[in-house]
Specification:
The chain is of the alpha+beta class. The protein is built from 5 helices and 8 strands; from the N terminus they run αββααββββαββα. Helix 2 packs antiparallel against helix 3. The radius of gyration is 24 Å and the shape is elongated.
Length: 212
């Protein structure tokens, strides 16, 4: 059968073309950008391949890591200050103080866990069919937004500052043909490379969709 009239054969030809665009698989459990990751996701279509899985650059975690480190030190600093000024706390059962301290540290570690999960599972996917943004809210909900590759009109890159230039991360903005939808991948590592791959994949998808 002529591939032009066989959807599966046409799709496989398109995938072969796209395979030439995306680098070979690079592994890394905590990697900010992974090419051709060996994974699947809920709702994945037949013959749909994941070419890029990305999350915000690891440097964006420094803020909450530093804040929580300070929170961990607060009881220690308070105890040192009380000791320096020879100040005693009100007479209470030691078990009550233990419960207060354990409750405080439980809150801090829960906050650290929440921030890590928010970073790790807030993922951006690029497949041979679409780009996806998985917006994950720990202990709440998640939602998925997607734009078909054939609908992508432009892919723009913006470096949001000196720090971003030094560590090579930036924002990727994807818009559709009618400019009615926009998707942003913020603080993505190696943004120029990711932008070029998405642009090339969208070009191939449109070419095959138009019968070329």
């Amino acid at each position: 059968m002529n591939p032009a009239y066989n959807p599966d054969a046409k799709k496989m030809m398109m995938i072969q073309k796209m395979d030439q665009i995306v680098p070979k698989s690079n592994l890394g459990f905590f990697g900010s950008v992974q090419y051709r990751p060996k994974m699947s996701f809920e709702g994945q279509n037949r013959n749909e391949k994941v070419y890029i899985m990305a999350r915000r650059h690891w440097l964006t975690n420094i803020g909450w890591i530093f804040n929580n480190f300070i929170y961990l030190l607060i009881p220690v600093i308070a105890a040192l200050i009380l000791n320096i000024f020879d100040t005693r706390l009100p007479e209470l059962n030691r078990q009550i103080y233990a419960v207060i301290v354990l409750g405080y540290y439980s809150f801090v570690f829960t906050n650290m866990f929440k921030n890590f999960i928010d970073w790790y599972y807030d993922i951006y996917f690029v497949t041979n069919e679409k780009v996806m943004d998985v917006i994950f809210k720990p202990f709440a909900s998640y939602q998925i937004e997607e734009i078909p590759l054939v609908s992508i009109e432009s892919v723009r890159e913006k470096t949001p500052g000196v720090l971003a230039s030094l560590f090579n991360y930036g924002n990727i903005t994807i818009t559709t043909e009618a400019n009615d939808r926009t998707m942003i991948f913020p603080y993505i590592s190696r943004p120029t490379k990711v932008r070029d791959i998405i642009s090339d994949l969208a070009f191939v998808a449109r070419s095959f969709n138009n019968g070329n």
